[in-house]
Structures are given as C-alpha cells and as structure tokens.
Amino acid sequence: MIAGLILAVLITAAWLSPNKAGHGSHTQLGLAPCTWAVWFDKPCPTCGMTTAFAQAGEGNWARSLTTQPFGFLLVIGSAAVFWGAFTQAVTGARLGQHFVVLLRPGMFMILGVLFAAAWIYKIMTW
Question: What total of structural domains would you count in the chain?
C-alpha cells in the first residue's frame, strides 16, 4: 500500500507542468493559490515543493534542486521509499527493519534544520 501511494504521488508529479515561476504548480490539481504568498508576498515554508516534484518528474534534477532544495530531498526520499516498499511487497524481504534507525529524534532534528534552511533559501531567491 505504501508503494502504491508513493507511486501515485510520483506519477501525479510527473504529469504536472512545472510553473516557470518556481511555485504555484499545485494549482493544476485544483488547489487555490497560496494564501501566504498572496498576503505577504513571501514564500510559505512549503513553497515550490510541488514544482520541485514536477521538475524532477520531467528529469530536470538540477532545476528541481534549485527551485526547492527540501522538495528535491523529498523526491529522492520518496523514490527510495517506493523502491524499498515495492521490493518488500514483491519479495517479502524485511527491508523496513534496517531503516528504523532513521526514525530517531536526531534525524527529525536534522530534517527540521534542512526544512528551515530551504525556506530561508526560498525567501532569498523569491
């Protein structure tokens, strides 16, 4: 089920056309424009994530990274989790037990710092 859900996200991202502005691709899914950006004329913390996924879906990895670094990291992580979950579902291998180490508090702190750094980067490149 995990592999199927992540594959659906990755396929949807590949189907989207990345917005040239580096944000706003989510509106193709019927979602409203970002209220944060409209009100403050600044990017929200997740600004550009959908666009980064769409750019990676087109194979434009460098553009995905420069659009939203944390979004690019999520693309790579999503692809890795998809393949791990798919392999586990097909072969029965117990791959998940090897990655439980990543669910420790230190990893979440690192991800939080990277998330904040990506938001600062997005503000600076807005």
Answer: 1
- Domain-located, residue 87: yes
Name the burial class of residue 51, with classes exposed (0-12), middle (13-18) and buried (19+) by CB atoms within 10 angstroms of its CB: buried
Closest by CA position to 119, among listed 57, 46, 39, 28: 46
* Residue 71 structural domain: 2-21+43-124
Rounded-to-integer distance, Cα 87 and Cα 62, Å: 28
**Distances in Å between the alpha carbon of 46 and those of 10, 33, 49, 50, 107?**
17, 13, 6, 9, 19
Establish if 27 belongs to a structural domain.
no
Write the pLDDT tens digit of every residue in 11-61.
999 999 999 999 999 999 999 999 999 999 999 999 999 999 999 999 999
pTM: 0.91
Question: Is 29 inside a domain boundary?
Answer: no
Sign of CA dihedral 24, 119, 103, 96: positive
Exposed, middle or buried by CB within 10 Å (0-12, 13-18, 19+), for 31? exposed
| Residue 35 falls inside a structural domain | no
